[in-house]
Amino acid sequence: MAFPIPNHLPRKGNPQDVSTRILSAISDTTSKALTAQVASSWVAELDDAIYSTKKRIKERIQEDLPLFDRQLETSRSVQDRLRSLTVNVDDLSHSLSDSESGLIPRLLRDLAAHASLAQEATDASVKMEAVEHLALCRREYGNLKSSVAEGKLPEAKSSCALLQNLLHEAPASLTGAKLFRDLSREFQALKARIDEQLDDVYSRSVVISALEIAIRPEVQVRQSETFITLPSILSSLSSEPMSVHLSTFRRDLTTHFIEHLSKQPSSVVSDEEEDIPGTRRYRLTSFPSPPDSEDRSSRLDNLSIILSFLDIHLFPYVPVAHLKSFKQSLCKPITSAVLQNVLIPALPSSLGQLPEFLKLADRAVKFEKEYISGVLADTGHDKEIKAWVGGISGHYERKRRMEILDRARATVVEQDDPNHTFRAEVIAQPEATPIKIEAVQGDVDALNGSAWGLDDEKEGGANGDDAVDEDGWGLDDDEPAPEPEPEPPAESAAKAEDPAAAWGWNDEEEATAVEDNPDQMEDDNPWDDDPWNDPPAEPEQKVPPPLPLSPQPKPATRLEKFSAKAKTGRSSVDSPTATPLPPSMPTTPSLPPPLPIATKMSDKRPETLKVPLSVIKESYLVSDRVKEILNAVRSALQESKEFSAAKIFSSTSSSSPPGTLLMQTAPLVLDLYRALYPVKFALELEESPARSMRYSNDCLHLSKELDQVELGTGSVKDKMTECKDRLRVVGDSWFYYSIEKEERAIGNILSEADGFVDLADEEQFDECETAVNEALRHVRRLAQQWKPILQKSKYYTAVGLAAEAALTRVLSDILALSDIPEVESHKLSELCRILNALEGLFGEDPEQPSMVVAYVPSWLKFSYLSELMEASIADITYLFEEGALVDFEIEELVKLIRALFADTPLRTNTINKIMKGHPAPR
């Protein structure tokens, strides 16, 4: 193994030969250094190198001369063999490639001659095949042309098919020939002519029009003497034209015969006649029949005649490939025509006509079995006519239900006629009868004695001088007590009682006050003609006339001396039914009589409330449409019973027993009325208080009358009971909704008063007075509209709630005032007294006490409020101690006293006394 040379040792350069070294020297020598001597040295060096090389070669040969000789001999032998092989190759190449005698040129010439012969043979074979095929096409074309010329269309159709196959299978060498293209065009023209002739003979063989179907078994081809039969025509038609012809025939048959004959009374005649000598024509003709004498089963007979005619003269000749589908396509139109045009329109609307209709239905079932399933070979499992006939019971009931509901819908949406109403009576039970209030009058003589206690003051003058005057306003502190005057006439007494006359305003506004005075509106008031037509109830106790009052009395003082004779009873206003109060305490003659304000408030608060125990009949207004709705309900229930009792159908013919659907129609009529009427007349119900109350009456009367109707059985009875309850709820809801709507309207009217503030301003006072007057007129208008409609008890309830809304709003606004100056208090009292006219709405007999307390819970509180606006602290203290102000909350009284009176020790003492609570009833 050689020792590796380290990398740091210098490497020996590659040895260079002489020529390379000399050439390098020549290239390195510049032109100036190049001399002849240098060049001679380079030549001498080369010569030396050549000589040295030759010498080494000779020495090398001499070293192994025998081996050199053998190699030399071998190389000479190889050269000889190479020269011999070259000569032989050249001779062989000449033998093969010579253009004249060479093997390859001779072979190529022979192959070219063979290919030419093969092509000639092929051309001859193709030409012969084309000529033979063309000869076949020519022969068939000639047959086709002759058949067409002679009118032999079936043979022409066969030749046409054969020629078409020949043309389709023509050799490729023939298809490009001009002769072949001309033959193809001639063939297409003949084919189109054949199709036209076939269509022509078919159109003359099978003819259908609006009134006739004609079928010719044989038809002569035009421009020939050949007759072609119908089977040949139908079999010769191609598949696509055949489908088109059958589709057109089905359409015309359905339109002109199936639909027409199933809708219109007609008669159908089938006959046979000679068309032209030697040919026949089968004809089916329809004729209109008089509609009055028509039997609907004749329509089925007409359809039977049509199908029998087609089954004999057409169906046997239709190709098998089209016959089944053609028959199936007729099944649906015929079935629909029988159902929609024969059976369903003939379904009767009365029970007595059903037996005759069932005969027609049985005839339709037989028709379906014999013709649709038999002649038309309908293989479907659904027999529609049979299935429909099996459900005739349900179909009849559904038809009657739709008729009943349609009539009910027309009744509901019919416009209201005020003349189409009636009055229904209702018995008001004692517990629901409005309260009759009987006033218990005290000892008149005791109260008429010294009306204002002036004699007492004369007898006890010291006490009169030393007593403290509790007049809150202090206007009469220095005035002497007036002398008793003679009793004024009735007109003066009435004027003295008039609140407006007390302020002296009626002198200037007497004309305008007439509108707000219920007594002066009697001529324009509808209450004179009692719409309820009820005789006035006999009062159980005569009410004595009111006590006479002295004119211009001085406000009384020392209310602690008020006689127990003038105490007022407390009636409950929390509910319409009030319990009688205990009788008044015995009169004490030594005590002074009550002051005028207390006397007037005693008149407003009766001492006893008595409820009559007799049964009272009341009436209310109801629309005539309610009778029609009730008649529809009764008719549906009665018809259901009759239908179920007739036993015309078996219970297995439908999923539910006969009569069930008719029975279910009764509650649907009620549902339709309840749902449709408020929507149809929504605007009228919203704008007319009378209309909404009458709708409430209608629903309640309908609910009440349903109690007298047999409500059916099972689920229908439950549904009818539910409808009855819902009608009652709807009636009550509309009653109170109408009242609430008017309460909101009254609230909006009184909102124009702006809380009754700043009444010292005349413009503000006029606006408040206008608002209060408008509220009064609104309530009166409601009373005028509601009284002819509502029964008495509900009328008083409705008007009472409307009046309560007005009083409550005025009460809340006045009690909310934090400061009421003297001028404003008088004006507030005047405004309050305007609404006192509402009392006239709650009485029919002027000789009987008003029932306003029973129906307007805030009436007493409102009445006392108008008086408290002008009362002194002494008056308020007296009324509080006597229990007359129990309608007021303690906080309301305290706030009212603080608003009316200045902050004085007397006011503080009074407030402290009131803060202890209302006195216990005695």
Automatic annotation (TrEMBL):
InterPro entries: Zw10/DSL1_C_sf, ZW10_C_2. Residues 466-488, 514-532 have a biased composition (Acidic residues). Transmembrane segments: none annotated. Residues 771-914 form the ZW10 C-terminal helical domain. Gene3D superfamilies: 1.10.357.150. Pfam families: ZW10_C2. Residues 533-554, 579-596 have a biased composition (Pro residues). Residues 265-297, 448-502, 514-603 are annotated as: Disordered. One of its GO terms (cellular component) is RZZ complex. GO terms for biological process: endoplasmic reticulum to Golgi vesicle-mediated transport; mitotic spindle assembly checkpoint signaling. PANTHER family: CENTROMERE/KINETOCHORE PROTEIN ZW10 (PTHR12205), CENTROMERE_KINETOCHORE PROTEIN ZW10 HOMOLOG (PTHR12205:SF0). This is ZW10 C-terminal helical domain-containing protein. The lineage of its organism: Eukaryota, Fungi, Dikarya, Basidiomycota, Agaricomycotina.
